[in-house]
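Handoff note, outgoing to incoming analyst
You'll be picking up this chain. Sequence as last confirmed:
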Amino acid sequence: MRRLFTLIILSLISYASFAQWNDLIPNDGKQEYFQHQKALKVFDPNYLWQNDHLWDYDVHFYFIDINVSPANIYISGNTSIGATAVIQVDTFAFELIPEMTIDSFFMNDVRDTNIIHDGNNVLVPVSAIPIGNYFTAKIYYHGQPPTGGFFSGVTHDHSYTYNKDVTWTLSEPFAAKDWFPVKQVLEDKADSAWIFLTCDSAYMAGSEGLLTNVTDLGNGKKRYEWKEHHAIDYYLLSFAVADYQDYDVYAHPAGLNGDSVLIQNFIYDTPSCLQANKAGIDETAAILELYSNLYTIYPFADEKYGHCLTELSGGMEHQTMTTIGGFSFHLVSHELGHMWFGDNVTCATWSDIWINEGFATYSNYLAVEKLQGWNAGQSFIIKTQKNAMSDTSSSAGSVYIPEEQVFPGNEWRIFNGQLTYDKGASIIHMLRHEIQNDSVFFDVLDTFQIQYADSTATGEDFKNVAEAVTGTNFDYFFNQWYYGRGFPYYSYEWYYNNGKFHLSSVQTTSTPYTTLFTMLMDYKLVFADGSDTIISLWQTDNINNYVVPFEKQVIAFQVDPNNWTLEKVKSIIIGLPEKIENPVYFRLGPNPVKDKLMLYFEHPNSQTTKTISISDFEGKIFRRFKTRNDQKSLFLSGLSNGFYLIKVSDGQNTFVKKFVKL
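Most recent structure output, in case you need it:
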């Protein structure tokens, strides 16, 4: 999902800027067709807003048969849920908001009248259904759900550009219950779904899967009959209804050996709408072909891909038919990337939404680089990395969302643009760099898609696939980048002497929660003859010293020249050969420093008492410290901005460096 904001809204709620892009800067539901078996978890106490009876059964099929209109958000009709009992079911539970009135309920065609509608949960005592038995619950209902805000289940709006009314749904993450009876549990994908949409004959209604029929009901109404035969999660079911026209194009992925994929687009029925959006729609084919080459073949090639144009401020990756507010390259490529990451493989928990949004954002980057060129790709990844590091506070969060932060009303934490989207994409880029082999990296993505197709996965599942394919243990990587917080700061000092390049790299971090980022860093060295090279060195500690032999003199040094990694460089100093055998020799960083300065003592016998003093250049001493440790944190709040000297002495040896306080 990608959300677009106006500049005014951004200034008011900048924390909620997820997925912003500014271009300026099914099976038929029959029991014999069940495709997968799901290992359902027991009731999770973190989901206290849901009734524990939801975990009594395994959903296989949704059949949504409703009346819809572009003029309002009123809904009436029925929904059938086909499921298998995981335990003996004597109380059937589902979710539906109280604003929707339940007219009747049938269990296996037998009407039940004892319906308990408790808030968003509905409980119906039923005759006992044994373990393993298939059953069908059918609910007739009607009502007008509440609207307003991005996470409303059903929204109506008017396009003033094209003078069209439109109504659409957006169920992610908790709003499917606003418009149909549902079990909102991510791990319980349905094997298939039918979405039948009845509207006035002047309109068209789009949804998932294949449009198998348009039935003229003979009373000024038509029914659009969509059937999704692939496994689908509850929040990926949708509809959009308006005065549409159907504009189709086709993609021809190489893996289909000459066959094609339908790209079906419901756009407003005016010539100007097609004229304005045709180029963006047409470009969808090239993006789909690219992803089919980089990843596995398009997962729903036997059905379609498509878009329903609405007034949504962004896009929502409803399976096989994205609900979209426009056709910019970035929006289309992001939502299309979700067909692999989010739809074919869906996050198993909202804590692991990175599986959806981090990879869709990275897919956007790949589309930019491969289809628009290297320079455009670099601009994209630089902007992404910059936003990923925009929170410099010590309390910055992690890409993984702690379970206690996942609940209705806290949606903006789940869809945090800085963490879920941009840092999420940035760490995929870094993992690709650390693998150091694009063929292997994309093999990881392919294996993940194949192993978890039609199912759900966590970040930990992805890590396990990456480890199995590469033979590398990535615990360190996920602990610091996925579960950890913040990013590293670097201070460098380098010099060239007697055929050797000397580099000292001091890493500090932006939060106290992650104190070291072990990572592969690239450095560009420029030689006196005008040539250059890139060397890759592992940062394994807060301070690393490297010596690399080069016959040619090094005259310039650049960090991360191709923008692979997340870091902020505080300083780069051209030094002179130093005698590190001095017992009080130390490195410091970051430099310049804002609040906390780290000192690292390198001599193996440095654990003697050392006196540390901070003074100005005239000798006035502002702070004194003592330590016997091999590193020392100096907190400098209250110290005025400016240049200072820091001196370390053990009574016999003294070493002095300068630093800048910001």
